[in-house]
Amino acid sequence: MAIGANLTELGKSLILNLIGALLVFLAGVLFSDPIQRHVAQWRRRRAFRKQKPAFVRIFPIIFGAPFDQLTHLLLRQNRLQPFFQLEVIHWEAWRGHEAAEARLRALRTDSRLEFVEKFQAEMQAYNEASGAAENPINVAVTDLVFPKNFYCWNTRDRRGIVIGINSLHKLFREDPILVNKIILRIVQRMLLYSLGIDSLTAHQYTWGCLFDLTPILTDLQYSVDNTYLCKQCARAIESDRGMEFLDMAKVWVKGDTTA
């Protein structure tokens, strides 16, 4: 009887071990790939976050309105995304700012590129005078009237950007908070564009997309709080930078714009 009982227990133990081994095998077959993909994705995301962000300097040049709220809104972006490190420059503290502004006010041109290049030259002069250790992306925000009534343009190498807000203030003078949100959206668009992502260009007929040209400026007010990346832009970003980059870019674009 004792021998029979021992054999029965041995049989039960053997069956349980076989079932356990089978379950482990099935779990490995069914879940190993998803787990490995998740671990690989986590490692890529961690490595990506360790990459050095692009250094960006924001210059309020010939900017009449108070800049404090816009500064707060812009600097919040440093913790909402890992791509760029933004710094708002105290432009008027630079002793060369008056001469620089006089040169810019005297500029007479219908060329948007020349207009931006002149601003870039003055921003670079500031960087040289301040001993900037890196070659930053320079973004000027100005009340100076933009050629051909545009509100934004960049240099050929995309390292110099000018945002003209004269027309925005005329359209939305009763709502400075809205103007600040629009400026933020333009900054986001131009900074992503500055990365030279293949096939990422401005376009029309995708109302609300960050890269929609919005030829009718008053339409900006309807999409500024509901901005997104359309399928065309998402495909371009994923193809050039990968899904992790795209996911973080989507979070950034969708992020809170409250001042």
Summarize the structure.
With about 260 residues, this protein is an alpha/beta fold. It is built from 10 helices and 5 strands; from the N terminus they run αβααβααβββααααα. The longest helix is centred in the N-terminal third of the chain and has 49 residues, at about 1-50.
* SSE succession: HEHHEHHEEEHHHHH
Our count of helices gives 10
Strand content: 5-15%
Which structural class matches the secondary elements?
Answer: alpha/beta
- What is the radius of gyration computed over CA atoms, rounded to a whole number of angstroms? 27 Å
The largest sheet is:
5 strands, mixed
* Low-pLDDT residue intervals, each spanning 5 or more residues: none
Could you describe the 3D structure shown?
With 259 residues, the chain is of the alpha/beta class. The chain has a domain at 52-197. Helices cover 54% and strands 10% of the residues. The protein has helices spanning 2-50, 68-75, 77-80, 97-105, 112-130, 166-171, 176-194, 220-223, 231-241, 243-254; strands spanning 54-60, 84-88, 137-142, 152-154, 160-164. It has a five-stranded mixed sheet with strand order 2-1-3-5-4, sandwiched between helices. α2 packs across α7 and α9 packs across α10 (243-254). The model has no long low-confidence stretch (mean pLDDT 85).
Q: Any chance you could write out the topology, listing elements then pairs?
A:
Elements: H1 2-50, E1 54-60, H2 68-75, H3 77-80, E2 84-88, H4 97-105, H5 112-130, E3 137-142, E4 152-154, E5 160-164, H6 166-171, H7 176-194, H8 220-223, H9 231-241, H10 243-254
Parallel strand pairs: 1-2, 1-3, 3-5
Antiparallel strand pairs: 4-5
Helix pairs in contact: 2-7, 9-10
